[in-house]
Here is the input.
Amino acid sequence: MVFLSAERLRRFDQLVKNLCSDIERGLITVRTDGIGSLCESVNDLQRLSHTCGQFVRLLVGLQACPGSWNRPVSNEP
Here is the structure.
């Protein structure tokens, strides 16, 4: 079980990095399909911070992509 949890954290870390890269390049914007679901998942993680303490607050509090949501929409990679 410990290995599985560690692997999930590793994958989550990589996904966050990839998402931030896509956001910074303009490939993901507030109008991208699925962004609503992503926001709901982040909200769920924030709700957990009230019961799981400092660890989840650290994860949710990360500002890995500051300011990138205000960039113009670009369809070019």
About this structure: The chain has three helices and no strands. The CA atoms of residues 32 and 73 lie 10 Å apart. Confidence is low (pLDDT under 50) at residues 70-77.
